[in-house]
Specification:
The complex is a heterotrimer of chains A (143), B (121) and C (493). Chain A has 143 residues and is mostly helical. Chain A has helices at 5-27, 36-54, 56-62, 65-88, 103-138. Chain A has one domain. Chain C is mostly helical and 493 residues long. Chain C starts with a helix and ends with a helix. Classes of the chains: A mainly alpha (143), B mainly alpha (121), C mainly alpha (493).
Chain lengths: 143, 121, 493
């Protein structure tokens, strides 16, 4: 698809908008439909779209495989870390009330961090799935 | 008549549930079974979300002038269930890809025949 | 830290899994898994001691009081199952190193350890949580990890087995969610204790009974209740040995725990003492499972499938105790959770050692000829565990079967006693088949001769075998804990 000029131009225009939209959905989850999972999927969709048009190697250069795998693990650890922060600051696990100066700002901060962790993991998983399934046909490697 | 019209979301739920189960059981192609599974799970999402919308209820965000809010809890539950469904589907597809590579086919009958041939030969 | 034991029980393995994925090193993965398993055992024992002395523990996640927030609730029954799961994990994880090195590709071994930790976290989470939907979440976490663990087996049939298990298991979980959804629609709450309170006031019973039916079938699929057991033989036979050992001892037992929770804690007895013949259905299916599965095991030629069918039969014993619904029968059921877990765990760990030496994944009974001379300790362990399976006095299996027989006699079901004894006789037949092949037949000329199983595997296996015998004599923990749990479950009436 990389030889089709219309697709290339449209892709180059769209991909940054998709990524910004992903960020918008991520932070808008407090006030409307949105949140970590949706944002992660949209961000991954942007990269997948880019890889579809410009080729899998270009996609790999944009989001290398080892980074994607670390993202998956890092997101879960961010979520677990927020939970532990609640314990260290005197509350229960995943207690957001103690994370800020007053309960409301604490809730805000807690939700922000867990959603960030979720978005990180979900985009990593979606990308990893894409890489795994597309990588299959290219080198029929081992089990 | 109101038994049908008033509860049409439940009728759709039941239809999807039974259709999904039928596809899962009756089809021998591994991919089609996965599709049946996905339809079954979709019916569950509908079962939770449709009753969550209260008559006259608005979106569950505090606003002036509204007293009835729709229930936000089913949405949270179903988001979790959707993620679980996605993970299951991804795992199922990965397994189907690997089965295709090792057996050369994704039809249940072919796979069974190959296993029997292995056991005899 | 002591106040947070309940949540650490689940969070430690859950956080260990991504850590293992980050570090990627095989050795680190094994060390992390072993340390986490031991930590979980320590926490489980600590929780059990605390519950025994101070009563049920309730932990609020996020400091939201129940029923608004999710509550982790440990009582006598949960503590019992927690210890079982953690004990199995602690015994299996250390020995896994050799087994995984032999059966899984080296650059992917760390993923198997990560799956193992996730499965452990899921199983512990199911047991400890007090929220119905949270049970589904952890159920799927542990199940998805289990499908992956099974699919990593060397034989290509492992893939089909994992796929089959995945289909049936997901349908089971979906049915469970439908049941919970119906309950939520009728009561407006998901907290188990709150559900129990609100169900008493519900007027229209039809959705509630439908919910009970969905939950029963859903969990029945997960616990391999006859005739929903089709996934189990293939899954156990073709999975890597470490996975089989862990799953055989824990997965179905935790599903039994969920069943017990819903039938005795959530649903008011008056709701299902009415016209719903749930006890008769359970008894009928259990007896069918016991007899049919034992008979199939008798004619099975692959050793792992033989013991997999034997597992289906033993699960029949457990659900029989639930169907009989008395103090003695529930004690027998819950004790059998622990006893069968330890017995089957020992058998599959020993078979893992044999498979390691054999070099091939599937072993027929005949290929075990002369095992008594080739691998004397493993064969001896198999014999003792086999005796526990039959229920010979002096082993753990006898204790739970004794309680079941007593319960059946209390209710005057002589035919049930006959069925239990018949199933035990058939078990004796296939265990004898194994003993005869191992000890009384000379090794074939082309059989493998590579000595005893590695020391690590052997110690874990013999530790479990020792527990089989120990629980046959000293029942303070197994039966004592079970009696506490049974009393708690039936406490409402």
């Amino acid at each position: 698809m990389r030889n089709d000029i219309i697709l290339r131009v449209i892709a180059k225009i769209f991909v940054p908008f998709m990524l910004v939209f992903a960020l918008y959905v991520q932070f808008h989850g407090d006030f409307g439909p949105g949140g970590g999972f949706q944002a992660g999927v949209i961000a991954a969709a942007a990269i997948v779209f880019y890889a579809l048009i410009f080729g899998l190697d270009a996609g790999h250069r944009l989001a290398p495989e080892w980074i994607v795998e670390k993202m998956i693990a890092a997101g879960v650890l961010v979520y677990a870390g927020t939970g532990f922060a609640g314990i260290f600051l005197g509350g229960n696990y995943l207690d957001y009330f103690v994370l800020g100066a007053d309960p409301v700002s604490g809730q805000h901060r807690g939700i922000f961090w867990v959603e960030a962790g979720v978005a990180l993991t979900v985009s990593g998983v979606m990308l990893k799935l894409f890489y795994m399934f597309t990588g299959r046909g290219r080198e029929p490697e081992d089990a | 008549m109101s038994a049908i019209a008033g509860h049409y979301s439940y009728w759709v739920t039941v239809f999807l549930m039974v259709a999904g189960l039928y596809i899962l059981i009756a089809r021998t192609n591994l991919l089609k079974k996965l599709i049946g599974l996905a339809i079954l799970q979709t019916s569950v999402y509908l079962l939770y979300i449709a009753p969550g919308k209260l008559i006259g209820g608005t979106a569950p965000i505090l606003a002036n002038g509204f007293t009835t809010y729709s229930n936000p809890l089913p949405h949270v539950l179903i988001l979790t269930a959707i993620v679980v469904g996605v993970a299951t589907l991804a795992l199922g597809l990965a397994l189907v890809v690997r089965i295709r590579e090792t057996y050369g086919s994704i039809e249940e009958d072919d796979i069974l025949a190959r296993d029997i041939a292995d056991a005899d030969g | 830290m002591g106040d947070h034991l309940a949540v650490l029980q689940v969070v430690l393995p859950l956080a260990a899994a991504p850590l293992i994925v980050l570090v990627r090193d095989r050795g680190f993965a094994w060390i992390a898994t072993t340390v986490v398993s031991y930590a979980c055992l320590a926490i489980a024992v600590g929780l059990a001691v605390r519950v025994a002395t101070a009563g049920p523990i309730s932990y609020e996640i996020g400091s939201w009081p129940p029923p608004w927030g999710i509550e982790y609730r440990v009582d006598a029954l949960s503590a019992f199952v927690l210890v079982l799961v953690a004990l199995t994990a602690s015994l299996v994880a250390p020995y896994a190193r050799r087994s995984i090195a032999a059966e899984v590709a080296h650059d992917r071994a760390y993923l198997m350890y990560a799956m193992y930790c996730l499965c452990l976290a899921g199983l512990l989470g199911i047991t400890i949580t007090g929220d119905a939907f949270n049970i589904f979440v952890f159920l799927e976490i542990s199940s998805l990890a289990m499908y992956v663990l099974i699919a990593l087996g060397r034989n290509r049939k492992a893939l089909v087995a994992a796929y089959q298990y995945m289909l049936m298991g997901t349908v089971g979980a979906t049915f469970y969610v439908i049941g919970v959804g119906l309950l939520y629609l009728m009561t407006g709450t998901l907290n188990l204790v709150d559900l129990a309170a609100r169900l008493r006031e519900v007027e229209d019973l039809r959705p509630v009974l439908a919910a009970l039916a969905f939950i029963t079938v859903g969990i029945g699929l997960k616990l391999a209740l006859f005739p929903l057991h089709q996934w189990l033989p293939n899954a156990y036979a073709y999975a890597p040995s470490m996975a089989t050992a862990f799953i055989a001892a824990t997965a179905t037992k935790v599903s039994v725990y969920v069943l017990l929770r819903f039938y005795f804690t959530v649903f008011d007895p008056s709701l299902h003492f009415g016209d719903v013949p749930w006890r008769e259905v359970f008894i009928a299916l259990s007896v069918a499972g016991m007899l049919v599965a034992s008979l199939v095991a008798l004619f099975e030629s692959d050793v792992k499938r033989l013991f997999a069918y034997s597992s289906v039969a033993q699960i029949g014993y457990i659900t029989l105790g639930i169907g009989l619904d008395s103090q003695a029968s529930l004690t027998g059921s819950i004790t059998h959770l622990m006893n069968h877990g330890v017995t089957k765990g020992a058998i599959f760990v020993l078979l893992g050692g044999v498979a390691l030496r054999a070099g091939a994944m599937s072993m027929s009974v005949n290929s075990l000829a002369g095992l008594g001379q080739r691998m004397p300790l493993s064969a001896f362990g198999l014999v003792i565990a086999g005796l526990s399976l039959i229920g010979i006095p002096g082993t753990a299996g006898f204790v739970s079967k004794w309680y079941l027989i007593v319960a059946a006699l209390e209710q005057g079901h002589w035919w049930l006693v006959a069925a239990i004894l018949a199933a035990s006789l058939i078990a004796a037949a296939y265990v004898w088949r194994l003993i005869e092949v191992a000890y009384l037949r000379p090794a074939a000329a082309d059989a493998w001769q590579r000595g005893e199983a590695p020391v690590g595997m052997l110690t874990a296996a013999l530790a479990m075998v020792a527990l089989c015998v120990y629980f046959g004599f000293d029942t303070t923990f197994s039966v004592g804990g079970a009696q506490e749990a049974a009393q708690l479950l039936r406490g409402t009436r």
